[in-house]
Amino acid sequence: MSGPFPINFLRFGWIDAADVLLVTVLLYQLYKLLRGSVALNVALGLISLYLLYLVVKATGMELLTKILGQFMSVGVLASIILFQQEIRRFLLNVGKATALERMRGWSWRRPSEEAPVAVGPFVEAAKSLSNKLTGALICFSQVSDLSTFADSGDRLDAEVSKRLLLSIFNKTSPLHDGAVIITGGRIRAARCILPVSENPDVPAALGLRHRAAIGLSEITDAVVLVVSEETGAMSLVRHGVVYRNLPTAELRARLNEWLLSGLATGSARMADQPSAI
Ligand SMILES: Nc1ncnc2c1ncn2[C@@H]1O[C@H](COP(=O)(O)OP(=O)(O)OP(=O)(O)O)[C@@H](O)[C@H]1O
């Protein structure tokens, strides 16, 4: 310990203050990351067990200390397995926050991703699909690499056009099932399989298509456009948040804002749109 603030028997210095502050920030970030998911309950369970372990150890209950100690020793490995998705999301957020990432436009950004995305064809196609009650799932890649998901479908590498998007999602098309992935302003792949969200707070009214959109946005920074087959509602999903039932103008504005700004920032769980989860 160092520094000039003696609190009775404790000496509390700048380093200790910084230490406490950093731990607080870390715990708050962890809470924000886990909030609304089952992982929060699991984390609380693990923390309770750890506190119990500290208490029994301090009181000298040897048998219980040994049993809990065994549990704690595999705890780190178990946590990594249990929190795979959250850890990935956390690291993605840390990566996005770095100065290097903010400068990505000048340096190591892939050339194919430099092309700005013209949102017009997507908005027009979504409107048309919505009117015909045809479902659609379109993922716009940002910084996260979506190639794993693109590889699960059929590679296209085609220029974006309203007509092509309508053809892909036409119910009789062999490509209509699954998601389309857009990278660098081109249609990279169709029929892609996305990870389905396990968030228990997703309203039951949302089907697998929306759950898949949420799932992808939870582990990557992709923006996902969904057209519901049931209601024709157009929604956008970003950072695990669904912005449901968007009118055309708002869909266009949000896509423009999020895609043309390059980096979708922030990770708020609450959306400023009615019906968001
Ligand atoms: N994991 C997934 N990855 C990609 N696409 C998916 C996935 N799960 C479902 N889909 C797409 O969603 C389509 C419809 O799924 P489902 O019938 O469960 O949803 P729905 O009830 O119509 O959903 P919604 O109301 O969300 O449109 C599937 O045919 C498929 O094209």
Task: Give a written overview of the molecule.
This protein has 277 residues and is of the alpha+beta class. The chain has two domains: 5-103, no CATH class; 111-264, YojJ-like (1. 48% of the residues lie in helices and 15% in strands. It is built from ten helices and nine strands. The chain has a seven-stranded mixed sheet, sandwiched between helices. Strands 1-2 form a two-stranded antiparallel ribbon. Strand 1 (5-7) and strand 2 (10-12) form a beta hairpin. Helix 2 runs antiparallel to helix 3 and helix 6 runs parallel beside helix 8. The chain is elongated. Mean pLDDT is 81; it is low at 105-114 and 263-276. Bound molecules: adenosine-5'-triphosphate. InterPro entries: C-di-AMP_synthase, CdaA, CdaA_N, DisA, DNA_integrity_DisA_N_sf, DNA_integrity_scan_DisA_N. Probably a homodimer. Belongs to the adenylate cyclase family. DacA/CdaA subfamily.
